[in-house]
Every structure is written in structure tokens, then in C-alpha cells.
Amino acid sequence: MDESTRNLQSVSARPETTDPLKSTTGFVYLLQALSFIFGVTSVVGVVVNYLRLAEVRGTWLESHFVWQIRTFWFQVLWGLVGLVTLVFLIGFLIWGVIYFWTLYRVVKGWLNLAEERPMYAD
Predict the structure, then answer these.
(1) Backbone angles phi, psi at 121, to 5 degrees
(2) What is the SS3 assignment for 87-114?
(3) Residue 63: enclosing H or E segment and its boundaries?
(4) pLDDT tens profile 55-89
(5) pLDDT (mean) for 92-109
(6) What is the CA radius of gyration of the chain?
């Protein structure tokens, strides 16, 4: 069996129940991206992650949910550190780093989702 046939069979063997979950995962990436404009949409995204986490357990989408949840909580943590250190002006630098770090994680996650690849894969 050649490589392309094997890949085609593995794609068709995926359960179709992940399609709505894949859409949900993409929606959360959209909410994270919109948080650059509106701010609070990432809160809605992480709530969706926690509400649907049990449904993605054991699928390749679970790694995306973990990625999204970690992105949110590290963003909150470092955002607070930046807020506390604003008085020393280093907070602005921290916020800048958080901005680009979050942008990187949203783009990388969305690209992996589009290619149906899990996060944290070698």
C-alpha cells in the first residue's frame, strides 16, 4: 500500500463527530483573535473550552483545547504582572511581549487546526 492510500484511509477513518468540535475549536481561536480588539472575547472562549473539554477528550482536538486554555491563563498571569510593574515602566514591555506571544499562539493553533494536526506534536 503506498503512502497516499494510507493517508487517505487514515483521514476517512476519523470519526465524523469531531467536525462540530473542530468548528468549536476554530470558533475559540476566532474569539482569541477578536480579543485583540474587544478584550473580553477570550474569556468567552475559555468558558467554551471548559464546557466542551469532556467532549474532546481522547481526540486530536484535546491538545488544541489545552493550548487555548493555557494561552488564556498565561495571558492573564503575565497581564497582571505587567499591570503591577507598570509603575516601573517594565509593564509596557511585558504587555508587548504578551501581545506578540498570544498572536503567535493563535496563528500557530489555527494553522495546525486547518491542517488537522494536534498541538505539541513533534
Answers:
(1) -80, 150
(2) HHCHHHHHHHHHHHHHHHHHHHHHHHHH
(3) helix 62-84
(4) 999 999 999 999 999 999 999 999 999 999 998 89
(5) 96
(6) 17
Give CA–CA dist 36/80, Å, rounded.
17
The pTM assigned to this predicted structure is 0.81
Cα→Cα distances 70→4, 6, 50, 77, 86, Å: 35, 34, 12, 10, 24
Confidence check: pLDDT of 2 > 90: no
- Give CA angle at 59 (58, 64), nearest 5°: 110
The span from the CA of 66 to the CA of 102, in Å, is 14
Which residues touch 92 (CB under 8 Å, ≥6 apart)? Answer: 82, 86
CA distance 28 to 19: 14
> What's the whole-number average pLDDT of the chain?
87
Q: Which three cell numbers stand for residue 116?
A: 488537522
Would you state the cell numbers that stand for residue 61, as one nine-digit string? 482536538
